[in-house]
């Protein structure tokens, strides 16, 4: 048994040897905050044990932060875990013979693949036969083959549906089988869709109304206003000149601005404007006449494609040509002699426009109706032709024979593969029955299930090592896929259960003499801490092995040491660090967590600014201060200390804090407790933490001196 370290040097331990009054016992608990030297002393204990030349690595077990990578994972792997042998059941002596018999019955995969190749060949032959029937039946009609990407079963299913759709139109199979496709209706549809549209030039209603007013207006003979054509001529000529030019026609003087002014006067003249509007009206009448002539040329094409019934509409349109000519003549007469009262038959014009528009509409409707009928016929014919194709495919003896052959081969392949799969599973089960690691995997998985961890450990295909799986999705996981808490728990379970030679954890493996556990509850969820603590207590009760359990948590230390006394069997220590050098001191288990933490902050508050520069665990103190503040406030004021936005006002009122200086210090304390106790980052200020510790102690001393004095002297 190790009683002390001798001249141990590692990191913060420098030439350290236990004092004579501070020796290790068979069962030892060491408390120390992170950074004080727990991991270093674990190494020191192991090295001290191995100084005895008769001791071997198999005589000790050590659990630390590197256990997963150093002791659990297989080298160069993130998902395979080393197998742990634990003989919890008897293997069958005949297993190997059974495995060999099963292996002989497994059909080779290349033989099954030959059947797959034959099935693929039959599929191609069936598809070729189907496409031949399709091409012959569709004739010149535009009916597409089924997609090449579809399976042969899906293709036949689609043709079956085509046949069922056709039966809704033609129920007699004898009639349906006689139907073949052609493109006659498709051509008719194309010809009708390509007919030129019939458009006519409409006359705008506002213009008609303006011309009506002109015909009613009386115009006197105004000799001061040139004729309309002369005004247009002057306007064209003026565009060739600019101010200051001589006349480009006679080279005489030209008063550009005077001519421009007179031109504007001429154009604004009522008579001139009326003639301009009449000419617009005449041009639109002429456009209407030209439209009718174009429509007449389409008469024969339309009647040939749509039918002779529509000729009456073309005749009605042609009959209006003379009417429009007479209306053009009336308009021209008014243009020539605007001052003479002429008549214009606007009712006749309206009737003419109506006849033309209605006739064109009737022709368009006839065309549209014919297209609807043709498309319906075409759709029906397409449905019937596709149905006839489907019917012939159903009746094809060749296709039936090949489909039956495919079905038989598919069933054969499926049976062979399923039989192989079953035999391989039987072989795997038999191999696992042989494996000493199988019982261990099942046992650990059951423990994980009992404590509600959604992981399980199963044998890898090599039947020697393990893989981790999710119980929810059965997905294989790597160490990176699980949380730190799950990783530590899994590692600790493996470490703990590997110590024992039986499944009830009653017989420790006889070769094990020393067990070291460094911070077993690190990163554990609260729900799992109790289970881990019970495991550690079980270790501490082992009779023949020396045990060292180390923790950074005062609560865990108190739980583990509860009910124990320092004696020849049991000892407790604290790892402390001063000026960067670690040492061991004896630690009482009677100090309650609050008392211990209070004393720690009290001592920290008494340090100087120079001292805190070497304080390696200064970022641990905010969380300790928060716990002290919460507990003291709770029993002093009688309610919980909730770190909310109005907390400072609440505390100021509770303790009558009015000084701005005190309020500032209180605000810093709240900030340190509320923010820094939950995170570690580079923005933390050691001076702020130290100042807050001093203020917390002063606040308690001022408001509860009796409590303060008792706690600071508590040992």
UniProtKB/TrEMBL annotation:
<feature type="coiled-coil region">
    <location>
        <begin position="95"/>
        <end position="132"/>
    </location>
</feature>
<feature type="domain" description="Protein CR006 P-loop">
    <location>
        <begin position="24"/>
        <end position="685"/>
    </location>
</feature>
<feature type="coiled-coil region">
    <location>
        <begin position="264"/>
        <end position="298"/>
    </location>
</feature>
<keyword id="KW-0175">Coiled coil</keyword>
<dbReference type="Pfam" id="PF13166">
    <property type="entry name" value="AAA_13"/>
</dbReference>
<dbReference type="InterPro" id="IPR026866">
    <property type="entry name" value="CR006_AAA"/>
</dbReference>
<dbReference type="InterPro" id="IPR027417">
    <property type="entry name" value="P-loop_NTPase"/>
</dbReference>
<protein>
    <recommendedName>
        <fullName>Protein CR006 P-loop domain-containing protein</fullName>
    </recommendedName>
</protein>
<feature type="coiled-coil region">
    <location>
        <begin position="396"/>
        <end position="433"/>
    </location>
</feature>
């Amino acid at each position: 048994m190790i009683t002390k370290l001798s001249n141990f040097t590692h990191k913060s331990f420098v030439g350290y040897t236990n004092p004579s009054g501070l020796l290790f016992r068979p069962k030892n608990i060491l408390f120390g905050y992170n950074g004080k030297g727990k991991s270093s002393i674990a190494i020191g204990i192991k090295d001290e044990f191995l100084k005895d030349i008769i001791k071997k690595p198999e005589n000790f077990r050590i659990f630390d932060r590197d256990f997963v990578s150093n002791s659990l994972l297989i080298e160069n792997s993130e998902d395979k875990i080393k197998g742990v042998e634990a003989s919890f059941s008897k293997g069958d002596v005949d297993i190997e013979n059974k495995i060999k018999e099963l292996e002989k019955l497994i059909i080779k995969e290349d033989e099954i693949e030959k059947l797959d190749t034959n099935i693929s060949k039959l599929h191609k032959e069936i598809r070729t036969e189907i496409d031949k029937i399709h091409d012959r039946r569709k004739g010149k009609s535009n009916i597409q083959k089924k997609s090449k990407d579809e399976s042969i079963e899906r293709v036949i299913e689609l043709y079956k549906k085509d046949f069922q759709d056709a039966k809704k139109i033609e129920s007699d199979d004898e009639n349906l089988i006689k139907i073949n496709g052609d493109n006659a209706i498709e051509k008719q549809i194309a010809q009708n869709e390509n007919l030129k549209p019939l458009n006519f030039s409409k006359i705008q209603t506002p213009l008609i109304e303006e011309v009506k007013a002109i015909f009613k207006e009386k115009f006197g003979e105004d000799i001061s206003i040139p004729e309309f054509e002369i005004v247009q001529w002057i306007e064209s000529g003026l565009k060739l000149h600019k101010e200051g030019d001589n006349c480009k026609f006679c080279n005489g003087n030209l008063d550009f601005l005077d001519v421009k002014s007179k031109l504007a006067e001429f154009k604004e003249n009522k008579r001139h404007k009326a003639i301009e509007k009449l000419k617009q009206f005449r041009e639109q009448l002429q456009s209407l006449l030209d439209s009718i002539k174009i429509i007449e040329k389409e008469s024969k094409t339309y009647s040939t494609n749509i039918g002779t019934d529509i000729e009456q509409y073309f005749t009605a349109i042609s009959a209006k040509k003379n009417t429009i000519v007479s209306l053009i003549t009336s308009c021209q007469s008014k243009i020539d002699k605007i001052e003479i009262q002429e008549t214009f038959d606007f009712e006749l014009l309206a009737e003419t426009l109506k006849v033309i528009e209605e006739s064109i509409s009737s022709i368009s409707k006839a065309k549209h109706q014919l297209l609807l009928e043709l498309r319906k016929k075409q759709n029906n014919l397409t449905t019937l032709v596709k149905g006839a194709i489907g019917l012939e495919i159903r009746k094809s003896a060749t296709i039936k024979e090949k489909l039956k052959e495919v079905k038989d081969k598919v069933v054969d392949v499926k049976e062979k593969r399923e039989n192989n799969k079953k035999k391989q599973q039987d072989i795997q089960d038999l191999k696992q029955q042989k494996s000493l690691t199988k019982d261990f995997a099942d046992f650990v998985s059951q423990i994980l299930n009992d404590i509600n961890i959604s992981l399980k450990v199963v044998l890898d295909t090599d039947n020697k090592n393990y893989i981790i799986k999710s119980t929810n999705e059965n997905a294989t996981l790597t160490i990176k896929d699980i949380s730190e808490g799950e990783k530590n728990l899994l590692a600790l379970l493996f470490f703990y259960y590997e110590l024992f030679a039986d499944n009830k954890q009653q017989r420790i493996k006889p070769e094990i003499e020393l067990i070291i556990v460094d911070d077993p509850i690190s990163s554990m969820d609260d729900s799992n801490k109790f289970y881990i603590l019970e495991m550690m207590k079980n270790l501490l009760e082992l009779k023949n092995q020396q045990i060292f359990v180390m923790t950074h948590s005062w609560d865990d230390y108190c739980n583990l040491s509860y009910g124990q006394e320092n004696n020849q069997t049991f000892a407790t220590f604290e790892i402390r660090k001063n000026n960067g050098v670690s040492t061991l001191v004896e630690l009482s288990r009677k100090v309650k967590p609050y008392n211990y933490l209070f004393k720690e902050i009290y001592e920290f508050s008494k340090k100087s600014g120079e001292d805190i520069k070497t304080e390696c665990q200064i970022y641990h103190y905010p969380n300790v201060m928060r716990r002290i503040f919460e507990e003291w406030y709770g029993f002093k004021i009688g309610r919980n200390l909730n770190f909310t936005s109005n907390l400072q006002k609440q505390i100021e009122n509770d303790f009558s804090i009015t000084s701005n200086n005190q309020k500032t210090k209180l605000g810093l304390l709240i900030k340190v407790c509320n923010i820094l106790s939950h995170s570690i980052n580079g923005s933390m200020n050691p001076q702020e933490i130290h100042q807050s510790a001093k203020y917390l102690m002063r606040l308690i001393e001022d408001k509860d001196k009796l409590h303060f004095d008792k706690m600071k002297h508590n040992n």
